[in-house]
Amino acid sequence: MFTDDVTLSWGSSPGKIVVSFLLLLVAAGVVCAGALSIMAWRRVVITLLVLLAVEVLSYALLSARSEMYVAFRNNLIWVVVAPSVIVALGLVFAVVTERIRWAAAFKLIVFMPMAISMLAAGVIFTLVYDRAPERGVLNAAAVGVHDTFKEASHYPGVRPRESGGPLRAEGKAFATQAQVQPGQTVLLPLVAVTPEMQKKLSPAQAPSPKPGTVAGTVWADFSPGGAAKPNQVDASEKGLPKITVEAVSGTKVVATATSAADGTFAFKNLPAGSYTIRLPASNFAAPYNGVNWLGSDLVTASIIGAYIWMWAGFAMVLIGAGLAAIPRDALEAARVDGATELQVFFRVTMPLLAPVLVVVLVTLVINVLKVFDLVYIIAPGSTQQDANVLALQMYLKSFTGEGADQGVGSAIAVVLFLLVLPAMVFNIRRFRQEQA
Question: CA–CA separation, 158 vs 201, rounded Å?
Fold first, then answer.
């Protein structure tokens, strides 16, 4: 089943088929032996379902690099994470709405996403997760927080000339090729400063030698028309302010200075000796552009976040209705007996609320197993396979590409139905027990 998209990672294909068949044979023998001793029709149905589940799981485990394996794995993550988080948030929101004065407005805000279709929510979160901070809301917030605590580089991409200049590369930093002593000057010419940036800069000033001081200038060694001479400060060239400059002796940073508006800097009162002048890499680091929310590592978590945003209001409303139905006498009796609020919540409220929580949880599990829209819309083409789920894999196999195979798609649909079936059976049994 699903053998058209498998990339096996160990052994030969016949060997894998043999191992898979042996696993199925052993499982069939064990389960059928138990079924023969109990001939109830329910046991027979359970036996058939267990056999099918063993077949599917053995296939998935033996083809750990296949698209089906990724879909199974992601569906498992969805089933474990999404319903649990939604129920927990719904419970918190329901409890909060009972204790605040503006409960109606809060409920409206939380429940509002339920009025939005999956398609619209997918489009919204495609923009929310956009990689560019000027468009993506989350990355705009991440960049704002980052730049608040860590100042962004003023000159990303700026560098010295590749040859013929006084600077050499030292990792991502740049240092002088020749050492200097107090009383001497040093020139630090840089290029690749954008014309837009140069318009905002002041003219560069050549350094003046002073006793006991290493003075220098860091500037944009370029002027329009190319009239300026390389490695010399010309009147038409611009100084680079706010650049950190270090005086290094051996491997130790002895002094640090910051360039002024005209690009000049000075290290005063340096002990006698020779120093290397270095421009640290922090001056030229690329700006922080946020998190790649839809990259291969975070795409599934990001889509689950969008799903939680949509369904938290649903859980809040149902759990809130359950809380409203709890007899207040039981809560007051527990408080009179000396129970704290936490004890009342966990020992009285939660047991009485358990049937509602189970209903919400099972409903969400069924919905999560069928999730398709959000994954298809939010995940970009480059990481869609990393976010793949069974419903999406069914669509891709049935209707896309030159090798579309509706037989394989139908098989995936059957597997999806069988995975949903236990939750449906559980719900039916619970309803019957409540009616009885």
Answer: 15
